[in-house]
Amino acid sequence: MDKYQKSHKDKLFKTRPFDPYAMPLRPGGSALCPQCGAVYHGGEWHPHGANGLGPLESTVCPACRRIEDHAAAGQVRVSGRFLATHEQEIRQLMLHAEQQERQTHVLERLIAIDCKDDELVATTTGTHLANRIGHDLEAAYDGACSYRYSDSERYLSVDWHRD
Predict the structure, then answer these.
(1) What share of the chain is helix, strand, coil (3-state, %, to 5)?
(2) pTM of this structure
């Protein structure tokens, strides 16, 4: 077996990583998250707007479950001397990125933004938001940014630093 065949075989038989927050038993019809108001319809979660869908099953969405459990799927760590003088601006950038991301990915939310040991740490319910915050920080303030996905690609850690 040559190198190409072996790598192709590894891709064919790779099992999907287990995500406890993915919905293995999807609601049969439409559902409404009682905590955030997101609506599940047609196999996807949508922002509010359950008009004309008929009866809605009450189901807590995966993002609200992650927030309750403090189970982050993404983390953004901001460090460096730049943080001391621009912390409020960076927090605003993170909140704005969340608002923008939720327009296309309803389940992408900030869990918390905490300041620990001269670092600002934001945790997110999904990888898209962590990725977007990292790119927004690079675009707005330069600095050095690194992205590390877990082996299962279900978790993203972003580190941004500027002195």
Answers:
(1) 35, 25, 40
(2) 0.80
